[in-house]
Design a protein that fits this description.
By secondary structure, this protein is of the alpha+beta class. The chain has one domain: Aminopeptidase. It contains four helices and eight strands. A hairpin with a 2-residue loop joins strand 2 and strand 3.
């Protein structure tokens, strides 16, 4: 039987996390998806997530299978919705799932759903019943993972990144009951 669980990432996990992020960048490029192709997320982004205690890893039989950041509170990137609307009031607090990636060694095992499920549990346990996530319009695989976890498509956001020319993302929202 396989043992899997989420844990907060530590600096000791950084080399494995960076390897997973770089594999994900290459995988997106292979698929012709212009997401994470301009340097983002940087090594410093990942280090900062760990320092801020918002970085998590999915452990499978003692190995890091995936990584994600769970940001608490409002996300400035979600204020610039160019098509569609969020449910709720503008001042509502929520968590955002960012930088989710799975190791190539574990790809195809539906572990992204397991990771998101764990992040949803953490959101609720930390007092947030609303969760948001976004992905590139061409990232159909992640869109499927997101909607399979109960998220509702809300529209298109545009984030401001001077290094990124392809900066529109599909935005999703989920309320936990």
């Amino acid at each position: 039987m396989t043992t899997s669980y989420l844990k907060k990432a530590t600096q000791a996990d950084l080399p494995d996390i960076l390897e997973i992020i770089n594999e994900a960048k290459a995988y997106l490029k292979e698929q012709g998806i212009n997401q994470w192709q301009s340097g983002y997320p940087t090594d410093d982004d990942i280090k900062n997530d760990i320092d801020l205690n918002i970085s998590y890893v999915l452990m499978v039989d003692g190995k890091i299978a995936g990584t994600a950041a769970l940001w608490p509170g409002q996300d400035v990137n979600y204020k610039n919705m160019i098509e569609g609307t969020w449910h709720g009031a503008p001042e509502d607090q929520y968590t955002s799932i960012h930088r989710i990636a799975m190791s190539s060694k574990f790809r195809g095992q539906h572990l992204s759903e397991k990771m998101i499920s764990g992040l949803l549990t953490l959101s609720l346990e930390n007092g947030f019943n609303e969760v948001r996530v976004d992905t590139h319009p061409k990232n159909v695989g992640m869109q499927k993972v997101i909607t399979n976890n109960g998220f509702e498509y809300r529209g298109i956001i545009r984030f401001e990144d001077p290094n990124e020319t392809d900066n529109e993302r599909f935005a999703y929202q989920l309320y936990l009951k």
